[in-house]
Amino acid sequence: MNAKGMLEELMKQASHGASQAKHGGVDIGKLLSSNVLGLLVGTQRGRKMSGKALKYGVIAGVGMLAWKAWQKRQVKPSQATAYEVAVEDEPPFERLQDEVAKERRSQMILRAMIAAACADGHLDEIERTQLGEQIEAMGADAELRAWAAQQMLAPPSVTELADEADSGQAAREMYLASAAIIDDQNPAERAWLDEFAAALKLDADVVRELELQAAAVT
Length: 218
What we know:
Oligomer: single chain
Helix content: 55-70%
Distance between the termini: 32 Å
Number of helices: 13
Order of helices and strands: HHHHHHHHHHHHH
Radius of gyration: 16 Å
């Protein structure tokens, strides 16, 4: 199974989508319904599309954005050191060198994104089928398609997700990726995200900084 390849492809889609939205002249509905990320955001569920394309920027740089949020809460700007020196023990997704660790982190982030998409209970059979078709179109093998289908059919709870986080950086990336998927104007989805933050044991200041980082690219 190659969850890493799937997440990296989603990040490429996100980067492309963010660029299109930034420069205007794009059909937002078409953009959001044409790939896996758009379907996870939920255009088929009657959710608000305003700003959704711009959330693509969060997914495109999820690891580094999560790391920057942590860095801002740890040191004063004048004391900040280079990434390579500062947190060698918890590198962001984009800088993980070990392929096994990167695959594991990819699965964590993808599970969190799928669970967030299911947070309001509106991911129906038709949408699961559409997502499955888009995942297959990305070149996913049978094992990855079956894994993704299982996540959509029985999404993990916030506690199950939090138990998988093997570092503070992983927890922050999982939260930030989820925050990019949900509609925070939807009370059920906002409540799910708050519960996820609590399950991950993220400090309130870190959560606030993560959301500020997200807002900065949206």
